[in-house]
Design brief:
five-stranded mixed β-sheet, alpha+beta, binds protoporphyrin IX containing FE
Length: 425
Amino acid sequence: MNDRPADVPAGCPAHATPPAPELFTWEFATDPYPAYAWLREHSPVHRTTLPSGVEAWLVTRYADAREALADNRLSKNPAHHAESAHAKGKTGIPGERKAELMTHLLNIDPPDHTRLRRLVSKAFTPRRIAEFAPRVQELTDRLIDGFIEKGEADLIHEFAFPLPIYAICDLLGVPREDQDDFREWAGMMIRHGGGPRGGVARSVKKMRGYLLELIHRKRENPGDDLISGLIRASDHGEHLTENEAAAMAFIILFAGFETTVNLIGNSVHTLLGHPEQRAQLQRSLAAGETELLATGVEELLRHDGPVELATWRYATEALTIGGERIGAGDPVLVVLAAADRDPERFEGPDTLDLARRDNQHLGYGHGIHYCLGAPLARLEGQAALATLLKRLPDLRLAGESSDLRWRGGLIMRGLRTLPVEFTPG
Ligand code: HEM
């Protein structure tokens, strides 16, 4: 926990470890990177009390993070959480919850995870995503058309937020006339961070009801969409049940929505703060090149990505990570944002380098839960940035970067609003 050499007396000013930073404050939400640098150096596997009061371990070094993400002794099933099992007096997920939307890829382990991931991969194919590119471009242009004449916009609400909602609804096969309902339900979830408030619970319930009905209709009358693909997918004679298909559609929407909002928001924010790199990207796009755009989106993900911490994992047995003893049932949170700035892995980790080549970042996770939607996220991220920079060439922040407010949830990192100005088109 402390790297003071054994022969140096405590309190020696030359060698004293600077005091531990305060986590989860407003300053931390705005810029967590100095605190993560401290943790990586002085307490790389760090036990902390989360704002919810739950105790958890934060894993901040790249090598430990990558290993932890692939460690099958770390379960995704919340039933393994010592505190929750103790508090509920039982070890399993309550039966009534099993049928609902929460039994999804990010909450289960093999062999269930292997089976569901194999089935969804048959429907969520790279080909389906590649064929979807023209539709993403059309959506991107339509949203920009909606504000380009004003000369100002809030890029989060008018662009980054609706783009992934409409894209995923289209992909799933939600009819256009119903997509604004999804926008409203998803808006409720993002505003209240998925907490146990009435509005969120009602939105989840409505979405579940809608998805089950849609699955039922698609079974009768299949189309070329992802939900029909999920219903059709079979593996060794096994199919998804209707509840599993609804949970799958829900996690695709849930995992693919706020992440993409933040990818667009954080990336635009970063580019506006790095005018030289942004100009270089604009020149490359104007010349019809796509390479810098592709490496650039990966670098923006590494430098200030949308997922700050990977989702919850629980030790199924006592184990060691980076020399720290983790108890059975302890929650382990892998801090992707800290790992992706580890100087042991990345040269000049705090520097944005859109052309960075050696860039095996952990922004999409690693191991069996590696992001299913990475090809769609890349497609949306690249289309959004390229189109914004081409159509709004003098895009600039309206106000000061220091006035921007970050959402401050535990897992995701993203802006509440991103007010911009530009010459009206
Ligand atoms: C899993 C990041 C977009 C669907 C993950 C994980 C990360 C991640 C870090 C692993 C979490 C963990 O291991 O705890 C991102 C980022 C995105 C993005 C940074 C955008 C920039 C999307 C999109 C979709 C999607 C667009 C779908 C449309 C999923 C699903 C999983 C997942 C279903 C769970 C996979 C599994 O457990 O097998 N994502 N994601 N993601 N992502 Fe994404």
